């Protein structure tokens, strides 16, 4: 009984109901794994609007209170221990056994009595060991669940960070695009304003000139009338042209006609429509370009990512990351956060003077665990550099590439519908390689700086 007593002492705290703080009476287990007295949890729910666990607040999915037989047995033993009843009251023998049917501790004589002859009787130590094993297993399950939830929390934080960074970049690109579109339309309006002003000023000059000539002619006629009278004026007109400035009159008439027909207005609707008709399509295209950020949930634990998720580098010490099913665990790879299922997309990667790197795309179902073999059959379309001079397109079969210059910045262009993935040296716009295939899955940008640490392979890769 010394061993049993030690077990009992260590289990007292474990066998207390969280509600009544006493040893369990008719213990029941909820779906979340927490245990209460049946009466305690029932009364607790009667005072609440909803049936939730009094310990963790989780709602039971089934609503079934599962009776815990083993715990009932152990609780009964502890109640007897707490009451210092270690001797059979009937036979005055030490209580060494436990009757499962009556859920009571009994002595050696009771075990062979008529009352317990057909009952399942086991040593008390076995009951306690059974319970200890159950509690140990339950604790192990709880620890695993806790670790899983903690990893989920960390993954959620990382996903929120990725989303926030991507959203900020998208909004900034949209703002910049709208600013440029606004300036473009304003420039068009100003140019039209200047053209209209110049035309009107030209007409004003013409009208002013005609007005000057007409004013002079009127003054001359008025003076002749005062001096010569109507008779002499008419006789003069018979021999000479009274209106010697007919060209001025014609000019004024022509100006008047042009003024009547002219529509000197800025075409407001045209300019507003130019901003509204296709601006959204253009803006979405602008946002889609250069919006590749890295997904930390896919990054190998030896990869370090910058805060803006736009650069990556190899780190010999593995970071403390959860074992997400999306994460690469054998090769130092990482994917872009956004996948593509249609359209044309492009992004640029600065590889600098690195001696080793991989670039390309990976389809969603491509293997990310263990050793990765880069090939179209395995869902990877990529090129790589090894030892600072060996360029290769990992096609089927692989193609050795001969480049006239070492690219420091590479542009990747994906045309999903056409089925092409092209790599371009941005310094001289020369084509490096083009894959041609039929894409059927979501595709993600693929990167790896490889795990080779040494001279010429320390600087980060930057998107």
UniProtKB/TrEMBL annotation:
Gene Ontology MF annotations: ubiquitin protein ligase activity; zinc ion binding
UniProt domain B30.2/SPRY: residue ranges: 271-463
CDD domains attached to this UniProt entry: SPRY_PRY_C-I_1 (cd13733)
GO BP, one annotated term: innate immune response
A Pfam cross-reference name: zf-RING_UBOX
Coiled coil: 178-210
Domain RING-type: 17-56
InterPro entries referenced in this protein's UniProt entry, alphabetically: B30.2/SPRY, B30.2/SPRY_sf, Butyrophylin_SPRY, ConA-like_dom_sf, PRY, SPRY_dom, TRIM/RBCC, Znf-RING_euk
Entry keyword set: Coiled coil, Metal-binding, Zinc, Zinc-finger
CC terms in the record's Gene Ontology section: cytoplasm
PANTHER family named in the record: E3 UBIQUITIN-PROTEIN LIGASE TRIM
Protein name: Zinc-binding protein A33-like
């Amino acid at each position: 009984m010394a061993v049993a007593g030690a077990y009992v002492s260590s289990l007292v705290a474990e066998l207390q109901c969280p509600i009544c703080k006493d040893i369990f009476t008719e213990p029941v287990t909820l779906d979340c794994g927490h245990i209460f007295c049946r009466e305690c949890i029932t009364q607790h729910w009667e005072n609440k609007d909803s049936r939730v666990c009094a310990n963790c607040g989780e709602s039971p999915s089934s609503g079934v209170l599962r009776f815990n037989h083993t715990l009932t047995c152990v609780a009964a033993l502890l109640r007897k221990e707490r009451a210092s009843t270690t001797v059979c009251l009937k036979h005055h023998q030490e209580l060494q056994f436990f009757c499962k049917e009556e859920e009571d501790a009994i002595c050696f004589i009771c075990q062979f009595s008529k009352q317990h002859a057909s009952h399942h009787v086991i040593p008390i130590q076995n009951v306690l060991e059974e319970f200890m094993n159950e509690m140990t297993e339950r604790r192990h399950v709880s620890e695993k669940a806790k670790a899983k939830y903690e990893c989920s929390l960390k993954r959620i934080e990382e996903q929120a960070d990725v989303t926030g960074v991507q959203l900020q970049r998208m909004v900034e690109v949209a703002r910049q695009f709208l600013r440029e579109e606004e300036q473009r339309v304003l420039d068009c309006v100003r140019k039209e304003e200047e053209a209209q002003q110049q035309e009107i000023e030209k007409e004003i000059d013409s009208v002013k000139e005609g007005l000057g000539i007409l004013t002079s002619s009127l003054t001359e006629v008025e003076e002749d009338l005062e001096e010569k009278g109507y008779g002499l004026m008419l006789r003069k007109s018979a021999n000479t042209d009274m209106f010697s400035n007919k060209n001025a009159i014609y000019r004024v008439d022509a100006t008047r006609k042009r003024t009547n027909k002219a529509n000197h207005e800025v075409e407001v609707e045209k300019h507003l429509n130019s901003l509204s008709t296709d601006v959204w399509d253009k803006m979405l295209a602008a946002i889609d370009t250069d919006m590749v950020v890295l997904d930390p949930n896919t990054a190998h634990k030896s990869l370090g990512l910058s805060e803006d998720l736009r650069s990556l580098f190899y780190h010999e010490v593995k970071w403390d990351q959860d074992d997400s099913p999306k994460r690469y665990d054998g090769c130092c790879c990482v994917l872009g956060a956004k996948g593509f299922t249609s359209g044309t997309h492009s992004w640029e990667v600065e590889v600098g003077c690195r001696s080793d790197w991989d670039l390309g795309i990976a389809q969603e179902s491509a293997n990310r665990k263990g050793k990765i073999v880069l090939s179209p059959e395995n869902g990877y379309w990529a090129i790589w550099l090894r030892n600072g001079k060996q360029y290769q397109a990992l096609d089927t079969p692989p193609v050795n590439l001969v480049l006239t210059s070492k690219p420091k910045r590479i542009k990747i262009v994906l045309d999903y519908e056409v089925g092409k993935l092209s790599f371009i040296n941005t310094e001289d716009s020369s084509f490096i390689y083009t894959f041609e295939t039929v894409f059927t899955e979501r595709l993600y940008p693929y990167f790896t700086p490889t795990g080779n640490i040494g001279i010429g392979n320390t600087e980060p890769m930057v998107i």
